[in-house]
Design brief:
about 190 residues, alpha+beta, about 15% strand, 5 strands, Yope Regulator, Chain: A
């Protein structure tokens, strides 16, 4: 299991250490975020379009009737891909995950974002999160870019925090169990 997440199999999953590769990882992250920001600029450059078949500004990216206007353009980024039509686009991305627990936390986070209707839909197969954009989105382009880039940054800080909370909870439960066992023995 450790190999899948870039760790040797014998290294504990909850180990969070910085090593000499940290600066290189941080540099790659900055490049990834700049590339993602550029891709978002392209994906969010949307125009109104009245569908000849539907008679409304229906999102072409979701339309099953593929016409010349609704042709999809694709953009690739380090952590995913984007698809764009004249009036709508999708962005599917993967977060960096070190272990199965982080994978679980990300799936819960994405479900909550979907529930809150923050331009997030159920992820496309093979990706952690899929964003859906329409020409008439209530968010401004710059707000969307800041939100998505911030989300990537936030997830990096949330993972160690969530692990620390779970580890503390486990330690407290073990101590409580030990206390309960000691009290039972004292009563006997």
């Amino acid at each position: 299991m450790g190999e899948k997440y870039g760790k040797p199999p014998n290294e504990p999953l909850d180990t969070l250490s910085l090593d000499e590769r940290f600066d290189k990882v941080e540099e790659v992250t900055i490049i990834e975020l700049e590339e993602l920001a550029d891709a978002l600029e392209f994906l969010l450059d949307l125009q109104p379009h009245v569908c000849a078949i539907r008679g409304s500004d229906y999102p072409c990216i979701l339309c099953e009737n593929k016409c010349d206007v609704g042709q999809c353009k694709e953009v690739k980024v380090m952590r995913g891909k984007g698809q764009k039509t004249v009036n709508s686009s999708l962005l599917s991305l993967n977060f960096e995950k070190r272990d199965a627990f982080e994978e679980y936390l990300i799936s819960k986070l994405v479900r909550e974002l979907v529930r809150e209707k923050l331009n997030v839909m159920n992820p496309e197969e093979g990706y952690d999160i899929t964003f859906f954009f329409k020409q008439e989105d209530r968010w401004r382009k710059d707000e969307i870019i800041v939100f998505i880039l911030g989300l990537f940054d936030k997830v990096k800080t949330l993972m160690p925090e969530a692990k620390a909370v779970i580890n503390t909870w486990i330690r407290n439960k073990v101590k409580a169990f030990e206390r309960d066992e000691t009290l039972k023995k004292m009563k006997e």
